[in-house]
Amino acid sequence: MGLSNARIGLIAGGFAAGMLTLAFAAEPLYSAFCEVTGFGGTTRVATEGPKEMLDQTVEVRFDANVADTPLKFRALQGPQTVQIGQHGLAFYEVTNPTDREIRVIASYNVTPHLAGPYFNKLECFCFSERVIAAGETRKLPVVYFISPNMVEDRVAKNLETITLSYTFFDSGTYNGPRTEVSGPVPAAAPDAPAGGGAANPATPG
C-alpha cells in the first residue's frame, strides 16, 4: 500500500527539520569533538600536568597569524626543546596599531595534526573574546606539555618537531567555539623553558 501524500509530506518535513537542526549543531559538535580527541590538530586543554617526564625531547615551534583584523601578532621566542611530559612556557605578543579598540578571539591548532591528541595546554588565551585597546601591546603566555602517551602511538612517537599555531579573528566574524576568559597565568611554570633553546631538566609538577 502506498503512502498518502499527507504522510509523505510529514516525513519530508521532519527530515528537512532534522537536517536543519544538524546544520546548526554541526559546528559546535565538531569543535567539541576536535577538542576531546585532538582531531585535525586541535590541541587539548588539561587541568593538571603529567606525573612523569621522559628523556625523549621534541622541538616546539610557534606560529602567529591574523585574519580579518589589523592587529600585529607574533611569537616572542624561537623554537623550544622540551622533554615529553615537561611543562613549557611560551609568550606571544599582540599589538593594536589603530586608534580604536579591537575585539578578537584566538583559535589554534598544531601540526602535524597527529600530534593534536598529545599536545596539552594548561593555560592559554584561546576561544575567549579579548578587547585590545587602541595602541595597546599585550603579552600572552601559554603553558603547555606533550603527553607521555605519545610514545605509545606507533606513528606519533617518532615526531621530532611540533608547531603550535595561533590565529586571531575579529570576534564579529569568528564562528568557532568560545569560552570564558581564564584566570591569571603564572609568570613561569616550575620546569618550563623561559625562552627559545633547550629546556633545563626538572621534576615535572
Automatic annotation (TrEMBL):
Residues 183-205 have a biased composition (Low complexity). It comes from the Bacteria. The keyword Protease does not apply. It is a single-pass type II membrane protein. Residues 179-205 are annotated as: Disordered. GO terms for cellular component: plasma membrane. SUPFAM superfamilies: Ctag/Cox11. Exerts its effect at some terminal stage of cytochrome c oxidase synthesis, probably by being involved in the insertion of the copper B into subunit I. This is Cytochrome c oxidase assembly protein CtaG. It comes from Hyphomonas polymorpha PS728. The gene is ctaG.
